[in-house]
Hints:
The protein is an alpha/beta fold. It has helices at 9-12, 16-37, 39-48, 69-78, 113-131, 152-161, 173-182, 192-204, 228-238, 350-357, 393-411, and strands spanning 93-98, 108-112, 138-141, 164-167, 187-190, 216-219, 241-248, 252-257, 264-266, 271-276, 289-296, 307-316, 328-329, 335-336, 341-343, 346-348, 368-371, 381-384, 416-419, 435-437. The protein is globular, with a radius of gyration of 22 Å.
Amino acid sequence: MEVLSYWQKETETLPLGDLRALQLKRFQERMVHVYEHSPMYRRKYDEAGITPGDIRTLEDIRKVPFTVKEELRESQARFPPWGDFMCVPPEEGVRVFQTTGTTGIPVKVLLNKKDWTVHFYDQFMHFMHGYGIKTTDILFVPFGYGLYIAWWGFQAALEQAGVMIVPGGAQSSRDRVKNMLDWDATVVCGTPTYLLYLGETARKMGVSLPESKIRIVVAAGEPGANVPATKAAIEELYGARCYDDIGSSEISNFGFECVAQQGTHVIESMFYAECLDPDTLEPVGPGEVGELVLSNLCTESMPLLRYRMKDLVRFNRDRCDCGRTFLRLEGGILGRSDDMFQFAGVNIFPSGIENLIRQVKEFSSEYQIVVPRQGSGKRMKIRVEPASDRVSGPEMERAVSRFIEAFKYRITVTPDVEVAEVGELPRFELKAKRLIRET
């Protein structure tokens, strides 16, 4: 295991009772904050007949109504552009973002100076120390920025901490590979999809990234960094350790993988996490899969309390080998409750299919999952492509046969497999869209 480093060791290793007391105190403070400053929350809580004073124990938090993304959209539609859920006036904002809009109309996000320079910095220092990044490292950021929050906070916090940043926007993937080498980058970040594509581009250029100075790869934006086959593929391509980074535009980044690589830690001093059955919304048992529900415990601008993330996770509350008592998400984000689909009576997670695909060396890292309409009589279709022109037809046929057998064994469904031409499937720099539902 790499050398351990902590941002706030005393807090990160608190006994569970002390950690719970800290979370309760901070939740109570946020409850008062949103009740006094957010018209939406005051209205919401008055209708539910609950006040901040009603929260005396952590169990009382279950009385608090959930917050869902659709509420934020509706608030901004009724009171454009910011809605009435914000807790600070717009003139205090120093950074604005919006959600990707993959599940509906984008939500606008505003952060004041304290959230951007203090709270975001605090969060990402847990990430930096968890990954073992040092101020002597050089971070290469291989894409251009826009309204999406991806990597803005990570870069800004590491820059504030003294890490050198090399911007890689407005470049081709080949030029980015050259720049990673020219600038002696030691840390690279990106979505798992794009990191794989960038690594494959380097191979095609005859560049051996394992011989470069890159020692850490940080992946976010999709489940992948904790999909075993995907993590292994990234680590092989770069000759570096690959770490998970999880968050969302609305609630910000809350989870990091430490050097022990035993799951993704939630920063429990800054977030209160629950794992609930998506249907009953009751807590699931230890080790069971449930939907992640998060509450901000520090932010000022737009705290979200009991926010339904729609992400499926499995909690592990055992102390990690790194010494942290913060809970771990085993396997990181396992998928989304609205991405999980049922076919032939089987609940299927796209990340499980990804893990099988990326174990087949004859396949490229790109794929598509086509789910037919229920009752159509069609099979699920998996579209793949050869890893390169050097994969022969007979080799591909054998690989497809092995994949179908593994799929049948692991997922208990027999898919159709369609082989596309090399490079035919779409490539993505940000979140990949690989699940296609037929209507």
